[in-house]
Amino acid sequence: MTIKHIFSDMDGTLLNSKGQISADNIKAIKESQIPFTLVSARAPIEMEATLNKLNLSNPQIAFNGGLVFQPTANGRKILAQHYMDYYTTQQLVSQISLYFPHVSLSYYDENKWYTENIDDGIKFEESITGLTPTVVTRKALYTDVQSKTFKIMLMTWDASEMESLKDFLENLHIAEISVQQSGATYLEITSTDASKSTAVQQIIDSEKLTNKETLAFGDGQNDISMLQTVGTPVVMGNAHELVKPFGKHITKTNDEDGVAFGLKFFVA
Length: 268
What we know:
By secondary structure, the chain is an alpha/beta fold. The chain has two domains: about 150 residues, Rossmann fold (3-Layer(aba) Sandwich), CATH 3.40.50; about 110 residues, Hypothetical Protein, Haloacid Dehalogenase-like Hydrolase, Chain: A, domain 2 (2-Layer Sandwich). The protein contains nine helices and 14 strands. The strands form three sheets. Strands 8-7-6-9-11-10 form a six-stranded mixed sheet, sandwiched between helices. It has a five-stranded parallel sheet with strand order 2-1-12-13-14. The protein has a three-stranded antiparallel sheet with strand order 3-4-5, covered by helices on one side. Helix 1 packs parallel to helix 9. The longest helix has 14 residues. It starts with a strand and ends with a helix.
């Protein structure tokens, strides 16, 4: 079956461990001449540099499926959006700050990244994305009822704290949220309606493709639903061991241009 659309996670997949896309990956994607969609937990503003390097103008997926958009000369054309309401965001931020004060916490609307404190987690994310968050007070969050929060991002390097945090969020029993771990360090909270698989399927349907005509690259647990949606799932060599069984193929690592390798050997 000929591959007619390719989907790819960014961090740990298309991007190397420094958060950069290599010249070989860029070359391979452009030479394939197959529509290519980034499917990321990142915000659109954190995807822009890579989108520009690849000259992509077809639909793209941000916030783990919370936002489907198409880059245009006049800005983003929103194709679908799923965000958390003001009261849910308020509850989460206050509860996490109270019980996990050492966890790095920040959140995103469509255009900006916000935090109350520039801690080590924020500095690390700045080094990866090249962006600087807007520092706000809790009061600002609590008064902006019109805000649309697409993602709350939590970071900790303490594995036991990560497990405690996941248990805590599960025990809050908030039906409107989805909690997904991305790598060992990140825990991301989005709307329960946001999923990589749903967003990928939306694009497949809009282009009148069959799932067998699609391929996806991924490395993390939040990529599993996407890998299950496409006909040819390709897992990175650096992927979490729980993810590897979901791949039809396993390519090289993200620091070895695994996407370029996969395009060469697994795209028919």
